[in-house]
Amino acid sequence: MLLVSTDPAHNLGHLWERAVGDDPVRLTEPSGAGETGGCVDGLEIDPDRTVAQHLSAVSATMRRLLPERMHAPAARHLELARQAPGTHESAVLERIAEAVELGDASYDLVVFDTAPSGHTLRLLALPEQLTSWTETLLANRDRSERFGAALHGLGGDEEPDRDAELRRVLLRRRDRFARLREVVTDPAQSAFVLVLTAEPLPIAETLEVREKLTGLGVDVTALVANRRSPADAGELLAQRRKQEDAHLARLRDRLPDVPLLDVPLLPGDLVGPEALTTLADHLGADPS
After folding, report:
1. Rounded CA gap, 1 and 37, in Å?
2. Which residue has the higher pLDDT, 81 or 145?
3. Which positions are catalytic?
4. Are 208 and 239 in contact (CB under 8 A)?
5. Which of 25, 37, 146, 220 is the most buried if burial means most Cβ atoms within 10 Å?
6. CA–CA distance, 126 with 87 (Å, rounded to integer)
7. Between these two residues, 39 and 86, which has the higher pLDDT value?
8. What is the pTM (predicted TM-score) of this model?
9. 177, 134 contact by CB (below 8 A)
10. Separation CA 48–CA 68 (nearest Å)
11. Neighbouring C-beta atoms of residue 110, cutoff 10 Å
């Protein structure tokens, strides 16, 4: 399994008590020769490194495809784009698409630990938007190539190799994002799990996120109510448990077909393989 964090405030390394970076690292595997089971690799997408690599790749492509007189203006444009709205999300989306491709080739399962809901919704909306944008660029290239062919027939000097490479770049980008959207919106390949606390505001946000995900064609297959108060640990927590039960009852009424799992408030910090195994045992219980 490959575990990927897209949250800028990463915590995989803290949870597993080891360094995790922008390349996959082994987090756990069967400890003995006779043990069965799989391994878990971890990857934390580094936004700054991702943007730098993304812009570097774009710059190299532009220098290769553009006339020399346009290199300096293109470089200035890319530097301005570094902090432009959407640059971060676009670059991170490229890495997510790469992780999906890596998962297809090398893993049985890829799990994404995403950023807070607003950031995640913007990311999930991007594949369709960028695919449409790339289709528009391709259509413009088609018109440009037809015009160039006409000029060439009149004695103009076009550069067919450059045009062909640009088309290959655009097609590769379109196909990558189209594949990502296909995977994310296919319930046979992907599932989205929303984690919440049993309080009014998180529940309202969960309902809103679920509605928006449905509009994007993304299926929510489970809900996890985290840090549930115990009913038998004193009057204060028992009273809080009753309030949580009432809030979750309203959530079940609104989403009756989505399984809801309870994870109790656990002692200590959820750090290290043993603590994570305890958490996994609770998640493996039958959903309500």
Report:
1. 11
2. 81
3. 7
4. no
5. 220
6. 11
7. 39
8. 0.77
9. yes
10. 28
11. 21
**192-283 carries CATH number 3.40.50.300:** yes
Contact 27, 42 (CB under 8 A): yes
Q: Inform me whether the pLDDT recorded for 188 exceeds 90.
A: yes
CA separation for the pair 169, 61 (Å, rounded):
9
Query: Mapping DSSP to helix (H, G, I), strand (E, B) and coil, where does residue 39 land?
Result: coil
The answer on pLDDT for 82 being more than 90 is no
Helix axes 47-65, 160-184, angle to 10 degrees: 150
* Beta-strand pair 40-44/110-113: unpaired
196 touches 203 (CB < 8 A)? yes
- Give residue for tokens 């090398």: 106
Give the side-chain half-sphere CA count within 13 A for 37. 10
The answer to whether 95 and 45 are in contact (CB under 8 A) is: yes
Q: Which residues contact 74 (CB under 8 A, 6 or more apart)?
A: 59, 62, 63, 66
Let me know: does 39 contact 140? Beta carbons within 8 Å. Answer: no
d(CA 240, CA 243): 5
Task: Enter the tokens of residue 98.
Answer: 């790469």
Tell me 229's DSSP state: P
Domain 2-184 matching CATH 3.40.50.300: the answer reads yes
For residue 162, the tally of other CB atoms under 10 A from its CB is: 13
**Pair 181, 126: CB distance under 8 Å:** no
DSSP codes of every residue in 59-95? HHHHHHHS-GGGHHHHHHHHHHHTTSTTHHHHHHHHH
In angstroms, the CA 123 to CA 96 distance is 10
Helix-helix angle 87-106:117-153, to 10 degrees: 90
State how far the alpha carbon of 246 is from the alpha carbons of 84, 243, 253, 259, in Å: 44, 5, 11, 17
For the chain, which residues make up each domain, given as ranges?
2-184, 192-283
